[in-house]
Write a structure and sequence with these properties.
This protein is α+β, with helices and mostly antiparallel strands and 209 residues long. 25% of the residues are buried. Pfam families: His_kinase.
C-alpha cells in the first residue's frame, strides 16, 4: 500500500512539474527572431540564455533536488531574457542573497511564481514593475516576488493554474516545511507572494553532465 502511494505521488509530482506555460518560450523565440533581423550582435547572448533554460528544464527537472546555485542560475537566465524581451516597458529589480550555496531544492520550484508575475502583471503608468528577492541561509530560504497589477485582473493572478500547481508541489515536497503567503494589495495595486522553506543541507545524488 505504501509503495503504491509513493508511486502515485511521484506520478503526480512529475505531472505538476511538466505544467510549464509555453507562452514564454514562444515569446522568446519571437524576440530572438526580431533581434536577428535588427540587432544581430545581441542575438548570441539571447540564444545562450535560452539554451541554458532548456538544458535545465530538460535535464534537471527529473532530479529530486538540485543545488540552489543551479536554480538561481536558471532564474537569472529567465529574468535576463524577460528584460531583453520587454525592454523599456519593464522596471525590474532582483537580488539573490546567497549565504548558503550548499542547500538543495526541488528544481523549477521558484520559476512559476516569476512566470506568474510576468504573465498576469499589468502596467501601472507605462511600466510593469517586478521585484524579486531570494535569501538563502543555513536555516531557511526566503523568496519574494511582487508585481504591479490592475484590480480587474486580481482573480486571474491569484487563482491561476500555475499557482495551484505550485501549491500542490509544495504539499508533496515540503509538508510541514514551507509557509506560503499570497497578498493582493488593492490600494497600492500590487500582487505579492512570500515563500519560506526549511533548507536541506545535504545532497542526495551526484550531478551528472
Amino acid at each position: 500500500m505504501l509503495k503504491a502511494q509513493l508511486k502515485l505521488k511521484k506520478q503526480e509530482l512529475k505531472y505538476l512539474k511538466m505544467q510549464i506555460n509555453p507562452h514564454f518560450l514562444f515569446n522568446t523565440l519571437n524576440s530572438i527572431y526580431g533581434f536577428a533581423l535588427q540587432r544581430a550582435d545581441e542575438t548570441p547572448d539571447l540564444i545562450l540564455r535560452l539554451s541554458g533554460l532548456l538544458d535545465y528544464m530538460l535535464y534537471q527537472i527529473d532530479k529530486p533536488e538540485v543545488p540552489i546555485s543551479l536554480e538561481t542560475e536558471h532564474l537569472a537566465n529567465y529574468i535576463e531574457l524577460e528584460k531583453i524581451r520587454l525592454e523599456d516597458s519593464l522596471d525590474i529589480s532582483h537580488n539573490f542573497d546567497m549565504l548558503n550555496n550548499e542547500c538543495m531544492v526541488s528544481p523549477m520550484l521558484f520559476i512559476p511564481f516569476i512566470e506568474n508575475a510576468f504573465k498576469h502583471g499589468r502596467k501601472v503608468g507605462n511600466k510593469l514593475k517586478v521585484w524579486i528577492e531570494l535569501r538563502v541561509d543555513q536555516k531557511e530560504i526566503n523568496f519574494n516576488v511582487k508585481n504591479t497589477y490592475h484590480i480587474q485582473h486580481e482573480s486571474s493572478q491569484s487563482g491561476g493554474l500555475g499557482l495551484n500547481n505550485i501549491r500542490q508541489r509544495l504539499k508533496i515536497l515540503y509538508p510541514d516545511r514551507h509557509h506560503l503567503i499570497i497578498e493582493n494589495n488593492l490600494q497600492e495595486q500590487y500582487f505579492h507572494i512570500n515563500l519560506t522553506l526549511q533548507t536541506s543541507k545535504t545532497t542526495s545524488y551526484e550531478l551528472s553532465y
